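Fig. S4 source data, part A: sequence.
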Amino acid sequence: MYRESVYEEEWYGTGSAGAQEILNEALRQTPWWLISMAAHGLIGIVLMLAHFTEYESDKPVVVETSLQEDQPQEPDPELKREIWKEDQDFETDEPSIEDQVLKDAELADHVETDNNEDYESSKGIEDARSDKPFQGKYWNGSIGIGGGAGGCFGGRFGGRRDLTTGTGGRHTRAAAGLGLIWLANHQNPDGMWSCRKFMMNCKRGSCSGPGEREDYDMGVTGLSTLAFLGAGYTHRHGKHKDTVKRALRAMKERQTPDGCFGPKSADGHWIYNHAICTMAMAEAFGMSNSNLLRASAQRAVDFLIECRNPYLGWRYGQRPGDNDSSVTGWAVLALKSAKFSGLHVPDEAFEGALKWFDQVTDEGYYQTGYVSKGDAGGRPAGMEGKFQCLHAMTAAAVISRIFILDKAARNRPEVLGGANLLRQHPPKWDVNGGTIDMYYWYYGALAMYQLGGKYWKAWENALRDSLIPTQRKEGCERGSWDPVGVWGKAGGRVYTTAICTLTLEVYYRYARILSERR
């Protein structure tokens, strides 16, 4: 079992920047009536002083008042420790680390100037605990002093602690945080991420592991953006908000008039890029309720619906006539995020996806095929037969059924049968043994975490033991994962780092609806 060795300071931050964010968050969580009372009290004191002070009669009296939260005092270390105490389930007496990578990734806060937006992050751990229902929008609890419904986007704004099962420990959070720092450091100035040319952004030497497919840049940009959103960072909130803002602007600039994100290649594989970016734009809108993102997100959803085959699922391109479980899985997750966010999604899209998954799932072992029952699934050129685990499509089908059916999925044989198959094949990092499939691990982690109990127990430690020790610890590559496994060669280091970070964020990305112990 891997014993954790990364310090918490790498995730929460140290020094004045960390204290500034702590105090700003405390001010945002202060009830409006308490702020109002303080303001009126201050004005009253100033007026009283003005009344009892002697002034020369020929000089006007000017009374000025202001409430500012700029430049707060740095709290002493003991107070800072108490502020974070309720958000920790581990010891905090380890020394801090000076790390240039962390310093380079610190992004300066800025004042938001977008009009027609009035947003506050979800307040407190309790309002965003990730075992509350999917139906609640996370911002319900942000007004006044009262509590609100749980967030459909899990515990992203709840102090990163799931009150039921924890968040995988401090080092799981630290690993995810370092993944985000690496991604932030390797974002292009225009807001995109590049599969092949990300090394031009290296700050400490040069990273290895470029991908082969430049036409996947749109997809890895969406995937990287999802990693920041998964940890609670939006274009208006958190130290990575500039990174997210640049990414969202880049996606909007590359959205075509019909709603598609990025150009359409002749082979039709652009549908992956579009589905992933649709998911990112929908979640960004849902998490911020920003009018600047609504139109782009809805047009992307509408175009994704247009690409679906009538009465079934998706494949390459627009209504190609054939279907596959991989594209259909991404489309379902994108449309579910859109529905969570209040965008219009027709129910028949989900019904068609279920019908497709039923067609390619066998009734014996409940394995889901790629384009037909019992098939081995797709592999990139040159990778055929090199990887043992062939259950990525089963994982995609299980989580899709859970997201579509909600609590009705609890006792469905296709869900439990597929989950039992996944239980027998937990993650294992073995480069020579051909077991590395980060795409499978991502879908499988989502599904097994939703089911919880014995299912999640079979995966949780194996997942951490596969991802945390193998994360790069030195130089410019620190925080990233090597591009090994099935799709690493195509997407490169950006792809593997984004999808591994998303996988480690499983504890707080989505609300947990199947929360019964199993």
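Fig. S4 source data, part B ends here. Residues 14-85 form one domain.
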